[in-house]
Input
Amino acid sequence: MMARNLFIPITLGLVIAFLIGPFLIIVAASFSGGETLAFPPQGFSLRWIAKVFTVESFRDSFFMSLFLAVGGTLVALILGIPASYALSRYKLPGAETIRTIVSAPIIVPGIIVGLSLLRYIVVPFQVGITLALFLAHTALILPYAVRVVSASLGNLRSDIEEAAVLLGSSRLGAFFRVVLPNIRGGIMSAFILGFVTSFNQVPVSLFLSGPGVRTLPVDMIAYMEIVFDPSVAALSALLAFMSIGIVFLAERFLGFSRYV
Amino acid sequence: MFQNRAEALALALPAALFAAAVFIAPVVILLSDGFRAPGGGWTISAYTEFFSSSLNQAVFLRTLKLGALVTIVAAVIGYAAAFAIVSLEPGKKGKVTGLIVLPLMISPVARTYAWIVILGRTGIVNQAFQALGLSEAPLRILFSETAIFIGLLQLFLPLMIISLISALENMPKDAIPAARVLGANWFQVFWKVILPLTKEGVVIGGTLVFTGCLTAYITPAILGGSKVLMLETLLYQQVTVSNNFVAASVIALILIVMSFAANILLKRVATARNKTRSA
Output
């Protein structure tokens, strides 16, 4: 029995150390006073965290990533909510085909999505890089939006909207006054999942970079190839806390994990 | 269920057309490039050429090998971790599961970057080895298969653990004590009771980990460097260094076929389970 009692804490301790430890090291390294990235950190300072905010390319690419994550998720939801509604409430011919088409971007590796967009949309149609990135991120988020909203529609009984229609509401009115308020949590969860997925996404954006147009993670990779100072560690730590904070609040107020 | 077809199509088509135009059409054209003969017509010579190069063969086999190795090791660690988590009391269980899921929310760039600090020439591992007198000169761990393996395992282990937690929770509670009473040792309990009853969970987790490894770009790019390539980094190099779009198309199809195969396997296991349930 003794062996069993030790098995649980030792296993969990090792696994959590392996999964979380590297992240804690990044946090510690970002408070370093030294010139190069090292652990244990040499001295203590906030200079690298301060430096993150002064690097111009980080600032530009941060706003680019923010724009793609928020805008792309919104458009994916505007396309995805009606599609999910049609798939779950209507007898639709070819429903499986439509579901497959809409969720295909999740199966194909991102690097291929980025390359094919570059070759066959950006170059032949002279589409700007920003628009191409926007299209790519929207396509990438769409499967998540449809999946999460569909799950939340599945949990909602469909007879309440039928009752609303019988009582004289229009179909559209029933959707906005009965269905939408009831799936609000699912939509918010889809938004957060889409935001985090888009913000952390690298392979899709890899080929879609132009002069001054880059997403933040791609910019970080480019920076760390040239400069080996702790500022990327500091930025990584800040971004991680941002993601964790968003997901924590979502779990607290929406019960995020019910939908994902 | 509403019956109006026109209404249903009007709701569903914008999303489907968007995905078809922005995603499916360009990807299909890209994949067809690998079969186009220079003078017109179709050929598979790009594929025979790709596989005749020993470098490409090595990259292909390395991708398969690392994917399989990470999946197997993740399954072994995953069983131990999931088993430990399932036997915790409910309050603790939620907190520990939260800690396991947490890394999934952190940018893969940040998570991979941490390994440079740990595995680099002056990293923690080398400091420890030298302090303990295990090695004279710093070991070269970064830019190797070992580094990629560690990075991928850390990236995808949570997916395996989560799949196994739900599989173990759905297992009948008295199956293990029953087997013990009947005289099975722990090895037999795992092999004859736990594994068959959680097969579905380990297949789902394994598919997620394996496809994750195939399509990971950041980890091999940062931890493998420009010499130790995987299919994703080879594709990137073919485009940016060699301008070889035909080879890129060949690699793209290989990656897609491999991840589709893994997904079909996943679907088959999932439907097999629904059949046994309804029977």
